[in-house]
Backbone:
C-alpha cells in the first residue's frame, strides 16, 4: 500500500497536565528501520503508565495519587517508570491492535497484512533478560496514539481472534501486568486472593487470571460495580473500603494482588494469614503507605514488586485470548483527538474495565 508522509497523532511535548498533549494532523509518519515493522493502528488502549509518565508521577518528589494533572515538584532526573529522563516530543500509547503494513530491511516482509497486538516491553535483543536494558513502548520510544506506529518486529505479536480492534487493545498492558503480578506471588489453586481496585483494567484482569489458576477471589470495588466484577468471576465482592475489612472478609487470605496502594494499604496487609504474600504493580491511590514491621516479620509475610516481565507472559496472554479463556472488558472508546477526555474518564474510575482510543 502507498504509505502517507504525514499522519494524525496525539503528541506529548513535556511533563505536566493534559495541555502537554497536542493533537497534530500533519505529524511525520514513521518509517520502519532494520528489524522494525510499521503498524496501521486500529485502536490503542489507555494505561496508567502513559498518565504517570506524562504527569511526572514516577518522580520520588511526588507523593500524591495518580492524577491527570501535572505536579508542582517533579525531579528532572527520575520522571519516568525507569527512574530516568525521557525525550520529548513523544507519542505515548502502548496497547496497540492493528495491522502490519510495512517492514524494515531486516524484518520478514511476509508479515505484511498480519493482525497484531503489542508486547510492550522493548528488550535488548542481545540481552533480553536484563531488566536494566528494558524499555517500555510509548515511553522510551514512540507508541500508538497515532494513525501509524513502528515497533520491533518481535514486539508485534500475531493475534487470531474474532474480537474487534478496540476489544483487543484492552489486553496488552492490563493483562500482562496482572499475569506478571500473579506469577511473582506464585498464585495457585489453594490460594485465596484479595484484589483491591477489582473493577479497573488491571484489577479485572487479576480476577480473571487468578480464577484461571483455580484460586478463590475476594474483590474490592464500589457498590455500583459489584455486578460487573462478579461477572468477571469473583467469588465475593466487598465494598472498596469496609469499616472492618478483616471481619468483612471473614476467611484466610493468602495473597493480596495490589495496584492501588494509598490509605487502605495497611488494612489489606492486616488481612494476610501467616506466610501470606503481597504483590504490587502500582499505586494509583498513592505511593506512600504505613507498615508496622511487626506485621511483616511476625507473620512471615513475603512482599514482591512486579514491573518488567519476561516475553513468556504475553505469549500466555495471546493463548488465553485465542482460546477464549479470558474476555475483554471494553468500557468506552473515544476518537484519538478526544484523548484528553478519555484520560479524564480513565482517572475518574467510574467505569469498569478498559478505555481505548481509535484513530
Residues:
Amino acid at each position: 500500500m502507498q504509505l502517507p508522509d504525514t499522519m494524525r497523532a496525539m503528541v506529548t511535548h513535556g511533563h505536566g497536565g493534559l495541555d502537554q498533549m497536542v493533537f497534530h494532523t500533519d505529524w511525520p509518519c514513521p518509517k520502519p528501520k532494520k528489524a522494525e515493522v510499521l503498524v496501521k493502528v486500529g485502536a490503542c488502549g489507555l494505561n496508567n503508565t502513559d498518565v504517570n509518565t506524562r504527569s511526572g508521577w514516577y518522580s520520588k518528589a511526588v507523593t500524591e495519587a495518580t492524577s491527570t494533572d501535572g505536579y508542582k515538584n517533579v525531579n528532572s532526573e527520575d520522571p519516568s517508570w525507569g527512574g530516568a529522563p525521557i525525550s520529548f516530543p513523544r507519542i505515548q500509547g502502548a496497547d496497540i491492535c492493528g495491522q502490519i503494513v510495512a517492514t524494515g530491511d531486516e524484518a520478514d516482509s511476509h508479515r505484511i497484512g498480519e493482525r497484531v497486538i503489542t508486547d510492550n516491553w522493548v528488550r535488548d535483543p542481545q540481552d533480553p533478560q536484563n531488566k536494566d536494558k528494558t524499555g517500555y513502548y510509548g515511553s522510551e520510544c514512540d507508541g500508538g496514539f497515532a494513525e501509524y506506529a513502528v515497533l520491533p518486529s518481535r514486539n508485534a505479536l500475531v493475534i487470531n481472534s474474532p474480537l474487534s480492534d478496540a476489544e483487543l487493545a484492552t489486553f496488552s498492558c492490563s493483562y500482562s501486568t496482572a499475569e506478571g503480578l500473579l506469577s511473582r506471588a506464585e498464585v495457585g489453586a489453594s490460594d485465596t486472593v484479595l484484589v483491591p481496585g477489582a473493577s479497573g483494567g488491571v484489577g479485572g484482569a487479576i480476577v480473571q487470571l487468578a480464577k484461571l489458576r483455580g484460586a478463590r477471589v475476594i474483590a474490592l470495588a464500589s457498590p455500583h460495580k459489584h455486578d460487573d466484577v462478579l461477572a468477571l468471576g469473583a467469588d465475593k465482592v466487598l465494598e472498596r473500603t469496609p469499616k472492618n475489612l478483616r471481619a468483612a472478609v471473614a476467611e484466610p487470605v493468602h495473597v493480596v494482588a495490589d495496584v492501588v496502594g494509598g490509605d487502605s494499604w495497611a488494612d489489606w496487609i492486616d488481612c494476610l494469614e501467616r506466610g501470606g504474600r503481597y504483590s504490587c504493580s502500582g499505586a494509583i491511590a498513592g505511593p506512600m503507605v504505613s507498615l508496622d514491621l511487626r506485621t511483616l516479620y511476625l507473620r512471615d509475610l513475603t512482599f514482591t514488586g512486579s514491573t518488567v516481565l519476561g516475553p513468556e507472559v504475553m505469549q500466555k496472554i495471546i493463548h488465553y485470548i485465542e482460546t477464549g479463556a479470558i474476555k475483554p472488558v471494553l468500557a468506552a472508546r473515544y476518537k484519538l483527538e478526544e484523548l484528553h477526555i478519555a484520560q479524564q474518564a480513565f482517572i475518574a474510575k467510574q467505569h469498569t474495565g478498559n478505555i481505548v482510543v481509535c484513530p
Remarks:
- The domain at 180-305 is CATH 3.40.50.720 (Rossmann fold).
- The chain is about 25% helix and 25% strand.
- The mean pLDDT is 97.
